[in-house]
From TrEMBL:
Pfam families: Cornichon (PF03311). This is CNIH4 protein. The chain crosses the membrane at residues 29-52, 95-114. It comes from the Eukaryota. InterPro entries: Cornichon. Belongs to the cornichon family. Keywords: Membrane, Transmembrane, Transmembrane helix. One of its GO terms (cellular component) is membrane.
Amino acid sequence: IITLSDLECDYINARSCCSKLNKWVVPEVIGHAVVTVLMLVSLHWFIFLLNLPVATWNIYRYIMVPSGNMGVFDPTEIHNRGQLKSHMKEAMIKLGFHLLCFFMYLYSMILALIND
């Protein structure tokens, strides 16, 4: 979010912004897929069903990158067609999702420790 807002205010150029953001796309996809599979294996159905759409969206977004682009965030297209605003909105939604998941995981961990 901070990097995208720096790009919006012209504090950094598009190429450095996109290279910073693109290096975190693959770890995000892998990490979220691993967490989703772990929730399926451990039979936490509600958390699995909550994580499945986000993991699917991350994989879809990574797979659907056009062949000429630098990555999910492309410096030549980030200012076109309102992509910067959509990337910013997506980042805010993911921040809210991860905040919700953090407190759900914390509650689940405390509940498991109390029950044991």
